[in-house]
From TrEMBL:
<dbReference type="GO" id="GO:0006520">
    <property type="term" value="P:amino acid metabolic process"/>
</dbReference>
<dbReference type="InterPro" id="IPR000796">
    <property type="entry name" value="Asp_trans"/>
</dbReference>
<dbReference type="InterPro" id="IPR004839">
    <property type="entry name" value="Aminotransferase_I/II_large"/>
</dbReference>
<feature type="domain" description="Aminotransferase class I/classII large">
    <location>
        <begin position="27"/>
        <end position="394"/>
    </location>
</feature>
<protein>
    <recommendedName>
        <fullName>Aspartate aminotransferase</fullName>
        <ecNumber>2.6.1.1</ecNumber>
    </recommendedName>
</protein>
<dbReference type="GO" id="GO:0005739">
    <property type="term" value="C:mitochondrion"/>
</dbReference>
<comment type="similarity">
    <text>Belongs to the class-I pyridoxal-phosphate-dependent aminotransferase family.</text>
</comment>
<dbReference type="InterPro" id="IPR004838">
    <property type="entry name" value="NHTrfase_class1_PyrdxlP-BS"/>
</dbReference>
<dbReference type="Pfam" id="PF00155">
    <property type="entry name" value="Aminotran_1_2"/>
</dbReference>
<dbReference type="InterPro" id="IPR015421">
    <property type="entry name" value="PyrdxlP-dep_Trfase_major"/>
</dbReference>
<comment type="subunit">
    <text>Homodimer.</text>
</comment>
<dbReference type="GO" id="GO:0004069">
    <property type="term" value="F:L-aspartate:2-oxoglutarate aminotransferase activity"/>
</dbReference>
<keyword id="KW-0663">Pyridoxal phosphate</keyword>
<dbReference type="InterPro" id="IPR015424">
    <property type="entry name" value="PyrdxlP-dep_Trfase"/>
</dbReference>
<dbReference type="GO" id="GO:0030170">
    <property type="term" value="F:pyridoxal phosphate binding"/>
</dbReference>
<keyword id="KW-0032">Aminotransferase</keyword>
<keyword id="KW-0808">Transferase</keyword>
């Protein structure tokens, strides 16, 4: 019955890894997917995660029963505190409902399904450009996707005026997707003053903020600083959605651990919202997995382990910043034409190089450097050993 089924395209990001795996060159370099690597080019399991896992395995009282539909209660509580702040009035007033979901994507999807079913305005504005999966997640859930201006290629910075203009002309009540920090793919974030202007504009237009927080701790190295934009919105007492992922900041990629929080106007509304989230989740995947959130809760509940995590997280963020400097220095030393200062100005896991798709294809073919066709490179995939190779590839691509 499927004899005529069409071959689907590879995913624009995860498909880069598929192509990389097929390459037999010893010099191949995967800068596609945003996944942290050590200086030796290896995936990293944090020491504090290993420690938490040992505690969990040795605890004979632990069983493998189903979690509730909303997930592990301790995990949800800790996740809300992590993103909104331990002393958040919204949490104290029980106005926040948090459900454990399948990492960032799953949290976005559950939120989107809920909005498509219960919110009067089914249009979501997402930045141009944005993470490639965003438009698919929202449209498949039943929302209409529109774009707001975000990136200015000439300055390789924020198109703040364009952003404000587009949000100003959005219909009242429209949902707006905001990257909490370390914008993917551009590495360009608004300043706190700009965030405040965005907040004022959105609240005055009645726009609903939906934050995607996939990199808390990765932008500045500080968990609190990276959550500031979200906390600005929550502090004004208005509604707010937040999708959290522990893939990058705790290195729990394949465990698929994340949370969706919805800040409501009252405890009563939050409790009814939660009852509806359960009706979204149950037919989708019934209830979430237990191992990943148990690791997170173990770490977040223990002061020493929490501190240990922040040190390891900062070390990852710092290594990425070092890679930025090294790549910038290497291109400067080679005299590669162009201004490459955006490599050290942008933040988070990615550099949006400005290389076009032909240049990317050239680098892949001739230098076995793998990256997404929009010119994004994952700085976390680089090491001191591989920086010269990447610099050679970029130099050749822009001078050919
Ligand atoms: C990325 O943008 O590379 C990551 O968020 C991984 C993914 O799922 O696309």
């Amino acid at each position: 019955v499927f004899a005529n089924i069409a071959q689907g395209p590879e995913d624009p990001i995860l498909g880069v890894t598929v192509a990389y795996n097929k390459d037999t060159s010893p010099n191949k370099l995967n800068l596609g997917v945003g996944a942290y690597r050590t200086e030796e080019g290896k995936p990293l399991v944090l020491n504090v995660v290993r420690k938490a896992e040992k505690l969990l395995v040795n605890d004979q009282s632990r069983v493998k029963e189903y979690l509730p539909i909303t997930g592990l209660a301790d995990f949800n509580k800790c996740s809300a505190k992590l993103i909104f702040g331990a002393d958040s009035p919204a949490i104290q007033e029980n106005r926040v409902t948090t459900v454990q979901s399948l990492s960032g994507t799953g949290s976005l999807r559950v939120g989107a399904e809920f909005l498509a079913k219960h919110y009067h305005q089914r249009t979501i504005y997402i930045p141009r450009p944005t993470w490639g999966n965003h438009p698919k997640v929202f449209s498949i859930a039943g929302l209409a996707v529109e774009y707001y201006r975000y990136y200015e290629p000439n300055t390789r910075g924020l198109d703040f005026q364009g952003l404000l203009e587009d949000l100003k002309s959005a219909p009242a009540g429209a949902i707006v997707l905001l990257h909490a920090c370390a914008h993917n793919p551009t590495g360009v974030d608004p300043t706190l003053e700009q965030w405040e202007q965005i907040r004022q504009l959105m609240r005055s237009q009645g726009l609903l903020p939906f934050f995607d927080s996939a990199y808390q701790g990765f932008a500045s190295g500080s968990l609190d600083a990276d959550a500031q934009p979200i906390r600005l919105f929550v502090a004004d007492g208005g509604e707010c959605f937040a999708a959290q992922s522990y893939a990058k900041n705790m290195g729990l990629y394949g465990e698929r651990v994340g949370a969706l929080s919805i800040v409501c106007k009252s405890a009563d509304v939050a409790s009814r919202v939660e009852s509806q989230l359960k009706l979204v989740i149950r037919p989708m995947y019934s209830n979430p997995p237990i191992h990943g959130p148990s690791i997170v809760a173990t770490i977040l509940k223990d002061r020493d382990m929490y501190n240990e995590w922040t040190v390891e997280l900062k070390a990852m963020a710092d290594r990425i910043i070092t890679m930025r400097q090294q790549l910038f220095d290497a291109l400067t030393a080679k005299g590669t034409p162009g201004d490459w200062s955006h490599i050290i100005k942008q933040i988070g896991m990615f550099t949006f190089t400005g290389l076009n798709s032909e240049q990317v294809a050239f680098m892949t073919k001739e230098y076995h450097v793998y990256m997404t066709s929009d010119g994004r490179i994952s700085m976390a995939g680089l090491s001191s050993r591989t920086v010269p190779h990447l610099a050679d590839a970029i130099h050749a691509a822009v001078t050919k």
